Amino acid sequence: MSDTSEKENSIIDSFKNVFKERLNSCMYGTFIISWCIWNWEAIYLTLFIDQSLLSTNTGFLKIDYLFEMYHWLSPDGWALSIVGLSWFMVRILIGPFISALVITWWVSKIDFEFYVKNLKNEESKKIALFNRENKVLDAQKGNLEIEEENIKIKKSIEKERPEKDRWDVEFEKIKNNDNFKEIMNSLKKCLYEHNGKLIASGVAGGMLSEIFRMPPEVLVYLDVNGLIEFVDGSKKSISSTSKGKYFIKKYIDEKI
Question: By CB neighbour count within 10 A (0-12 exposed, 13-18 middle, 19+ buried), where does 240 fall?
Fold first, then answer.
């Protein structure tokens, strides 16, 4: 008995699952709805019209009235009525099936169009959000670069200020040196008249001769005090350091 009951329950469960799958199917569900629309009178009569009220108004029992609605026989009751049979098939099967097919096709198409439109809208939102975030990041990056540049400028100014203050003190000290004027004039002449060459030659009286030579003691003084640096590590040419340029400027200003 238990095996038989289990088999019966298994068959019933299988039938329920199949019925549930069919009912949840878009096509089957649409067909059922379409069938109800095509046959709404029969459903309404079966569920909501009382037997006694129907008999009083029509003189038919409910089953007879439904049969009259769907009969496909000729008036004599035996021969088939082509029109009646066609209308019966349209109401019971063909009409609901075609309606369900059209509705399913159009609903699927409309649903697909909405789905594509939604994807495009989501993609547009993502692109707009991505562009906005990029603009914000670029603006933040630009602000950071400006801040970093300002910090560098401030550090440079702060670094140069004590150096210039110290250079002013050194300038005042060496300015009292008896050879200060000779040192600064030699440095100016070497840098701006002979392109930094320590020994410059030229033609005088038809013969090649020296026209400038940086005095060794001046060269040593300039190098020791950090006013010059040798070009490419050689001892033939020099260039002015920031300190040297500052001293030259101070010398020219005070001289003027």
Answer: buried
Structure-model confidence comparison of residues 6 and 117, the more confident one: 117
- 3-class SS of residue 81: coil
Q: Could you say which of 72, 97, 118 is where a domain stops? A: 118
- Which residue type is seen at 58? T
Q: With bands split at pLDDT 50, 70 and 90, how would you rate the model's confidence at 256?
A: low
| 103-122 pLDDT per residue, tens | 878 877 777 788 888 888 88
Residue 150 placed within a domain: no
CATH of the domain at 220: 1.10.10
Report the phi/psi class of residue 233: left, alpha or beta, with left for phi > 0 and alpha for psi in -120 to 50: left
Rg (Cα) of the chain, in Å, rounded? Answer: 55
- Cα angle 28, 31, 33 (rounded to 5 degrees) comes to 115
Q: What integer best gives the mean pLDDT of the chain?
A: 77
As given in the structure block, the two tokens for residue 27 are 């096509």
Distances (CA, A) of 122 to 102, 116, 118: 30, 10, 6
DSSP labels, 182-248:
HHHHHHHHHHHTSTTBSEEEEEETTEEEEEEE--HHHHHHHHHTTSEEEGGG-SSBEEE-HHHHHHH
Number of domains in the chain: 2
Is 169 among the domain residues?
Answer: no
State whether 109 and 15 are in the same domain: yes
Q: In which domain, by residue range, is 251 found?
A: 177-255
**How much helix, strand and coil, in percent to the nearest 5, is found in the chain?**
75, 10, 15
